[in-house]
Amino acid sequence: MTEILTLISALLLLIGSVFTLIAAIGLLRLPDLYTRIHAASKAGTMGSCLALIALAIHAHDFGTMSRALAGVVFFLLTAPVSSHLLAKAAYAVGYRLHSSSVRDEMAPEDDK
Amino acid sequence: MISVASLFDYAVMIALGSLCLSFLITIYRIVKGPTLPDRILGLDMLVAIAIGFIAVIGIKTGYALYVDVAIALGLVGFLATVAFARFVMSRGKTEEDILTEVRQAAADARREARTATKAASKAAARPGPAAGATGGEPRHD
């Protein structure tokens, strides 16, 4: 039983770190701010949440487990809010989409 | 047959390595990032990677104390991102706008300086060489 839990937590650690790495590569390679926000806020959150869940599974006492899961919930609640706020602020100020973007739903009707 | 413990150690090592790599990549994006929101996004990502680090270190060493630090770090990162987003909003212009403004101001200043020097040289040339003598005398009176 303990071995299975250890294996599951190792697997979650691997998946989480790969997600984080993919998010960082997306941050490096994607062309404009909005696509980078898409990479960092989804894959990055997923990565750190999976690592925290691995910690919760690996922990032997209830306190650590509940705190790690509380961290996961907190992170899942705040990450979309902050990245959405950042994207909205950047769009309102006038940072442009990359020229390869095919659709801008928030553009005014006349120059869509 | 590999034992579960050594498999787990390998997993922790691989996780630490890829977290390090993503940390470096994110720092490169922060240093290079052409605009301010890119850098803010990099900061947000750094916080997420640091939380991942804390989780991996907590698993590796058994110190569960850092989980509280992770929650506090998540809170601080959230508030920092919100504050920076408010700053981007209240600044109200992009880097491009600032650059064009600065270029416009520089061009204006250059044009002004050119007209000023032209006017000065014209003023010095028109009255001729005697102007210095006649201009100097009334002040003695």
Quaternary structure: heterodimer
Q: DSSP helix count of chain B?
A: 5
Number of domains of chain A: 1
Overall pLDDT confidence of chain A: 89
Radius of gyration of chain B: 32 Å
Work out the number of β strands of chain B: 0
Binned, the helix content of chain A reads over 70%
Classify the secondary structure makeup of chain B into a structural class. Answer: mainly alpha
Give the CA-CA distance, first to last residue of chain B.
Answer: 112 Å
Order of helices and strands of chain A: HHH
Residue stretches of chain B low in confidence (pLDDT < 50, at least 5 long) are none
Structural key phrases:
heterodimer; A: 112 residues; B: mainly alpha; 5 helices; 0% strand; elongated
Could you characterize the architecture of this molecule?
The complex is a heterodimer of chains A (112) and B (141). Chain A has 112 residues and is mainly alpha-helical. Chain A has helices at residues 2-29, 33-58, 62-93. The termini of chain A are far apart. Chain B is elongated and about 100 Å long. In chain B, helix 1 (4-32) packs antiparallel against helix 2 and helix 2 runs antiparallel to helix 3. With 141 residues, chain B is mostly helical. Chains A and B meet through helix 1, helix 2 and helix 3 of A and helix 1, helix 2 and helix 3 of B.
Short description:
The complex is a heterodimer of chains A (112) and B (141). Chain A has 112 residues and is mainly alpha-helical.
Q: What is the strand and helix layout of this fold?
A:
The complex is a heterodimer of chains A (112) and B (141).
Chain A: H1 2-29, H2 33-58, H3 62-93
Helix pairs in contact in A: 1-2, 2-3
Chain B: H1 4-32, H2 36-61, H3 66-91, H4 95-125, H5 131-140
Helix pairs in contact in B: 1-2, 2-3
